[in-house]
């Protein structure tokens, strides 16, 4: 098939899935936070608030967009564009699965397969500061400006430990391409322990993984490092003056960045789409069993409806889960869906950790944040890189 | 296709560079410079300089220019004021500039043989692996000397910035 047509098709699919997922990530986040705090969370719009993101999107689009009177108009409008563009750009080099064949067409699961994908991710994440910094400055408000300044200082500082944490596993896999990285991490020690970089010899990258996650929290402006938008001090930080679609753009960029960084962590440290244990021990049946369990719970609750709509919603969702469980065993779909399942499972677990930490940890003070980056995280990541390099050179 | 991308990026680079000089506000100039850096990175990629292209993005567009923007925002520098230019500048400026550019173009045209034109994607030695190998073997001494030079600059900056202890 035409390369150009195929690329456009894949781009449309990836953007659609990513943006929809970003919208639903807000629902997931609100639900998880609510359950951590013993609340039900969004509940009114649709069953269990499932249509809440849709109504949020409609609300944000139909709202009036206000441009502050003394704002720098060009940069005020440019900033959300920059934020979204950089956030959506980096997803293009993430491979979601191995090379697949549908109706005789061979293609990669992923948009672009660069030789230096890891470098591109670093480059784009360092460009992501501009959207926030310019947005904060152009709003011409003291809270926005402080948020923008904090965010640029924080992102510059945490880029260093992040780059060092990425460099250590790169030494082990000896490549910059995500596809080759996953290939280097496939296989098992003693037949059952996966050769992921977190378990890899000669030096397990578990420390790099933790440093990377810590820096990722700061890069995506998440709790405990969400100083740029600390609502108790700065109202809403850099996007205080933004409303309507512009605000939605910043929000989308933030969630897209979380998704991308979790994908990168999965590829770098958790072996991408390789399963948790070999297919010989039945790892191919895990997705089906998981969806069957979901279907069983749904159908059980359908027999004991607590609310009026439960009689209809539970059986429908139970049947959908049953269809998914079956789809994983169809020979045509199996080579596509199983790697996708493992990739999504690992990425979603990491995203869950992001939300979990938001529900658990308090915010850092600003000087603590900087001190932590420069006097602890940076030296320790450097030592970790040196040890890894030495052991790789020796073996 | 390569030619089209080249022309687009070259145009963006020149337009941003012109805008950089014309703008009166420091932030606008800084952002234009970022535009120049990013389009240059694309040009490097087009020529096969994969590592250089990404290093350009990470170091110049991502680190140095962010610091520039940061400092401009921190100092809250306003738009610069326009003073009355002398008559000579207004009359001779633009013709002199074009004359100079024409001379440069003429010399390049006459010195470089026409057969030796640039081919997009013809060179494949630009990957991070090739680059590292060359940097740590052939150019080891210049590389180390440069890094020590930068280290001296950093130490100097810290000494200048530290508070005086009585």
Q: What this model shows, in words?
A:
The complex is a heterodimer of chains A (395) and B (166). Chain A is mostly helical. Chain A has a domain at 66-274 and 330-394. Chain A is 66% helix and 4% strand. Chain A is built from 14 helices and four strands. Chain A has helices at residues 3-36, 52-62, 73-89, 117-127, 129-138, 142-173, 178-185, 206-219, 231-234, 244-269, 286-303, 310-327, 334-360, 366-394, and strands spanning 97-102, 105-109, 188-189, 193-194. Chain A is globular. Chain B has 166 residues and is an all-alpha fold. Chain B is built from six helices and no strands. Chain B has helices at 2-22, 26-46, 50-75, 87-111, 128-135, 140-161. The termini of chain B are far apart. The model of chain B has no long low-confidence stretch (mean pLDDT 84).
Write the layout of secondary structure elements.
The complex is a heterodimer of chains A (395) and B (166).
Chain A: H1 3-36, H2 52-62, H3 73-89, E1 97-102, E2 105-109, H4 117-127, H5 129-138, H6 142-173, H7 178-185, E3 188-189, E4 193-194, H8 206-219, H9 231-234, H10 244-269, H11 286-303, H12 310-327, H13 334-360, H14 366-394
Antiparallel strand pairs in A: 1-2, 3-4
Chain B: H1 2-22, H2 26-46, H3 50-75, H4 87-111, H5 128-135, H6 140-161
